[in-house]
Amino acid sequence: MPDSDRYLSRKDLQERHRLSRETLNKLWAERATNGHPTPVVGEDGVMRWDEQEWATWHQRHLEQRAQARRRAASPPAKDAGLGDDELGGPAAFARLLGHAGTSTISRWLKDPPSGFPQPASWKALPSGRQRPQWTYAAMREFADSHRPYRGHAGGRRPIDK
Fold first, then answer.
1. N or C terminus of the chain: which is more exposed, having fewer CB within 10 Å?
2. Region (Disordered): which ranges (predicted)?
């Protein structure tokens, strides 16, 4: 094997890239779909990888996984193709923010967080109630600037003060 210092065994990869043996085994097992580099097998039968090729591949693999996580965390809204001047109600606003229901939007109408837009109009419902309507431009602007609240994990007791 020429220039054996360039080639790393699994143990070397574990140490240099701080990966567990299980992670390396999983990456190797998924090589058909993740593009894992091909090893060079030495005379001793141990698989080794070109250090630079493996490091480049691993960095690209991590970036692709991060992109996939970001896409999964914020799927495109059903209303993404609508124009900025079109109106949407609380359900559309909640969808755009990634909420499952409209209760947060209803609460924010009564006690708005910083930057929450006022409704552009109110739509009269057959029941006589009024439903707020916002322009998609206002909803998107708020969604882009709003940092979602992060609660604590469930099952904890409140802290007594």
1. C
2. 60-88, 108-129
Among 69-78, 100-109, 115-124, the least confident range? 69-78
- At 120, list the tokens: 């552009």
pLDDT tens profile 23-62: 999 999 999 999 999 998 888 889 999 999 999 999 999 8
CA distances from 71 to 61, 74, 143 (A): 15, 5, 16
What is the Cβ-side half-sphere exposure of residue 131, based on CA atoms within 13 angstroms? 14
103 pLDDT more than 80: yes
Question: Residue 108's Cα: distance from chain center in Å?
Answer: 25
Q: What are phi and psi of 111, to 5 degrees?
A: -140, 80
SS (H, E, C) 95-161: HHHCCCCCHHHHHHHHCCCCCCCCCCEEEECCCCCEEEEEEHHHHHHHHHHCCCCCCCCCCCCCCCC
Q: In which residue are the tokens 């580099």 written?
A: 37
**Alpha carbon distance 39, 41 (integer Å):** 6
1: tokens are 């094997």
- Residue with token string 């949407």: 88
